[in-house]
Write a structure and sequence with these properties.
The protein has about 180 residues and is of the alpha/beta class. It has an 8-stranded mixed beta sheet, sandwiched between helices. The longest helix has 14 residues. The radius of gyration is 15 Å and the shape is globular.
Amino acid sequence: MAYDYDALYRKTPNALGEPNAVFFEFFKSYGKANARVLDVGCGQGRDALFIARLGHCVTGVDLSPAGVSDLLAEAARAGLAVKGYVADIVDFEPTGSFDVIVIDRTLHMLDRLPRVDVLTRLIEHLEVDGSLLIADEPCNLPDFRKVLDRGSGHWTVIKEEKGVLFARRGRGRTRLEHP
């Protein structure tokens, strides 16, 4: 971890502020109830907590023990369905599958090869008709599209703009499709 987020989280409640607006907009119109959501790089839970408050079951993973501790404490106070794991995403292997995977400005912290390997491994845990939501550095999006193009399943881009790539996994042969 290049920046010491653990030290930041120990000193600053809600250090990263409000939920990411692009994820907020997605979940406002998301039609599935009780979705299983994986938040990769969850930190203190700025995205995970608002998603759980909408009635979804969230699993968060982050390298920061302080961040995950804050996430779990707030989830317990609010009675939310949240699990949290302290782990390096380079080595983390999720259990089960998810309806949505959220990756909010986390992959850019890795070098190119580990970044691609992590995304390749994570998308295998996404259900058919599941959504992958990535916010990251714009220069990384071409690599992310290549991962989807090589990954199993048919992928449809549902949103792509500066630093944002949302895609839905479908059935069928491997292919990345833009609307």
